[in-house]
Amino acid sequence: MPELMGIDGCIGLSLIVDRQSGHCVATSAWDSEEAMRAAERPIESIRRDAADQFGGTVAKVERWEIAVLHREHQAGEGASTRCTWLQLPVGQIDRGIEAFRTRVLPAVEEMDGFCSASLFVDRTADRAVSAITWDSQDAMERSRDQMAQLRASVTSDIGAQVVDVAEFELALAHLRVPELA
């Protein structure tokens, strides 16, 4: 983390892990796309070293735009995150963002244990991934049925396809990203 945070333009890092499967998602945030692109080469070695330390490999590297970021409060020890990957109809990213802002955020804010929500988009591939963080594994589990119903309703209305849903432990949250709700 110190090495990455020392690169010009880096404004944060998060790490979510599934200890059972061994899957990890490390996310770095940048103050601009230019800064992110300029850091590609130095990050390659940092990424390789991190994978070695975890005893794994880098499965893929993806670039996402942070479309929505809303923090109800800071995540504490024991926080958990549920991610949902979506394929949207061609040209419907903005419609998906609006549905997340107007339907998903108000609903999750009312759920017990809600901590924060983010939506990342890849406009070139019409993809999105949401990351909703809960105060605890228990709070995330209690939200599971409500979230499944909300996910089914919203994706049906906007014509999106759920590609995957996965739950993780929030191992590291060091983001200095301004709220984008």
Give your account of this protein's structure.
By secondary structure, the chain is an alpha+beta fold. The chain has two domains: 2-54, no CATH class; 65-170, 2-Layer Sandwich (Alpha-Beta Plaits), CATH 3.30.70.100. 35% of the residues lie in helices and 35% in strands. A seven-stranded antiparallel beta sheet has the order 2-1-7-4-6-5-3. Helix 4 (93-109) runs antiparallel to helix 5. The chain is globular.
Can I get a quick summary?
The chain has 181 residues and is α+β, with helices and mostly antiparallel strands.
What oligomeric state do these chains adopt? Answer: single chain
Question: Share of helix among residues?
Answer: 25-40%
Alpha-beta content class: alpha+beta
Instruction: Count structural domains.
Output: 2
Order of strands, widest sheet: 2-1-7-4-6-5-3
- The level 1 CATH classification of the largest domain is Alpha Beta
Sheet bearing the most strands, described? Answer: 7 strands, antiparallel
Q: What layout of secondary structure does this protein have?
A:
Elements: H1 2-5, E1 10-18, E2 23-30, H2 33-38, H3 40-54, E3 65-71, E4 80-87, H4 93-109, E5 114-122, E6 127-134, H5 137-158, E7 161-175
Antiparallel strand pairs: 1-2, 1-7, 3-5, 4-6, 4-7, 5-6
Please supply descriptive tags for the structure shown above:
181 residues; alpha+beta; seven-stranded antiparallel beta sheet
